[in-house]
Design a protein that fits this description.
142 residues; mainly beta; 9-stranded mixed β-sheet; 1 helix; 11 strands; 12% helix; 35% strand; globular
Length: 142
């Protein structure tokens, strides 16, 4: 699921090998879009691994807002942060040094390739819960 501020934008899930572009969608936030269709937001699952074509550049805030900060990394893992808070940005990237930066703070136009997406269970979570409950129920009876 994409960040709350992108819910009104057409979207699709990320796939391994996608080349994505950081883009401002006109909704007060930046997000990922595929190179072939910049009008569609590409949503990443937490744990998705990315590699950027160059060192990541982020905007600075505060007194030196016109400066851009070049980070020392080209790889990152997508994370969801502040999930308990409503109407704040949740999409973020975690870098190898542990620093977490909101996606909306990154400069537009940067390209990233999806290296790996997290594995999804083959059966629905409800069925997993049911099977686990049934298993625990049998072991408690025995």
């Amino acid at each position: 699921m994409c960040d709350y501020s992108l819910h009104t934008i057409k979207s699709r899930p990320a796939r391994v090998g996608d080349v994505l572009l950081i883009r401002h969608f006109g909704t007060g936030t930046r997000g990922f879009a595929a190179l072939e269709d910049c009008t569609t937001a590409v949503c990443l699952a937490p744990g998705t691994e990315l590699v950027f074509s160059k060192k990541v550049v982020r905007d600075r805030d505060g007194l030196l807002w016109w400066w851009r900060l070049r980070m020392n990394y080209t790889a990152a893992i997508f994370r969801k942060v502040n999930t308990e808070e409503r109407c704040v940005h949740h999409d973020a990237l975690e870098f190898p040094d542990g620093e977490i930066v909101l996606l909306t703070c990154l400069c537009e136009g940067q390209k990233a390739t999806v290296l790996q997406v997290p594995a999804q269970p083959k059966i629905g979570s409800d069925k997993v819960t049911e099977k686990l409950a049934a298993y625990l129920g049998r072991t408690e009876v025995a």
